[in-house]
Amino acid sequence: MEEFNKLSRNQRKKVMHQEKWEREAAAFKEKKQEQRRERRRRHNQRIARGEIKPSRPPPNQIRSGHQIVVDMDFDDKMSEREIKSMCAQLSHCYSANRCATQHVDLHITKLHEKSSSRFTALKSVHTMWAKQYIGFHDKEYLDMFDKDKLVYLTADSPNVVEHLDPEKAYVVGGIVDRNRYKLLTLKKAEEQGIAHAQLPIGQYIQMATRKVMTVNQIFEILLRFIETNDWKTAFVDVIPQRKLKENAPGHTEPTEDNNTDSSSNTSDEN
User: Residue span of the signal peptide, if any (predicted)?
Assistant: First the structure.
């Protein structure tokens, strides 16, 4: 500041003008990056709805070896509309996994009658899904993995995930509940005697509302972290800007937002 005050009036104006230009350039760059992220999210939504055919998997795509499970054992706790939303979110998960540079083994477990019937209604799309990107199972994840290999992801857990262990299978609760069922997935994990944890959202970004995300957003965050090994990048690339607090890390000025969620219904990082 002392050196700045020693400058002439014209020199100070030049310095201030340069600083303003740099701030605006950085904001413009971040705005463009967010617009590209929004376009990618909307494109994935159109693929999931069957409006366009998915692009081919990346030529350098590899199997990451990570196991992600969506626990669908909640049919009795969802309305028909919520089940429809949940199935749409699974479509988004498939689309994201298919286009990932490092795809995971995605398991949909304990698929009950209502959800299964919904997928049957989508048979023309569902039957075309490649098995290396998604697998449907009538059985529960406890019948597929050892207990000590399971980690249930729930926002209510006091534990925090620091990294993703390829030797573990991470479980996401497949439920759209509008927060009717408090501590549902945490209690389930505790009753089953399996580990549980939440994503480290608060360590990297600040959300304007409670840490509530759709299942496909949680899945895409996990995919992005596997690709980048960077939680902040994963959160910022996936979570819509409108859910981030202003002036918080990762927040930029809002761009035109045509709804990046698969539904207005949300699921608590189950």
Answer: none
Name every residue whose Cβ is closer than 8 Å to that of residue 154 and which is 6 or more positions away in sequence: 173, 185, 186, 189, 196, 197, 198, 268, 269, 270
Strands 150-153 and 135-136: what pairing?
A: unpaired
Q: What is the pTM of this model?
A: 0.72
Question: Residue 38: which residues within 8 A CB-CB, separation 6 or more?
Answer: 240, 255, 256, 257, 258, 260
Dihedral (Cα; 255, 259, 260, 266), 10-degree rounding: 130
HSE of 1, CA atoms in CB hemisphere, 13 A: 0
Taking only the tens place, the pLDDT of each residue in 16-49 is: 888 888 888 888 888 888 888 887 777 776 665 5
Q: Minimal CA–CA distance to 151: which of 139, 140, 164, 138? A: 164
Residues comprising the chain, all counted: 270
Token pair belonging to 144: 């597929």
CB burial readout 48-60, b (16+ within 10 A) else e: beeeeebeebeee
Catalytic site positions: 177
Specify the CATH class of 3-268 in words: alpha beta
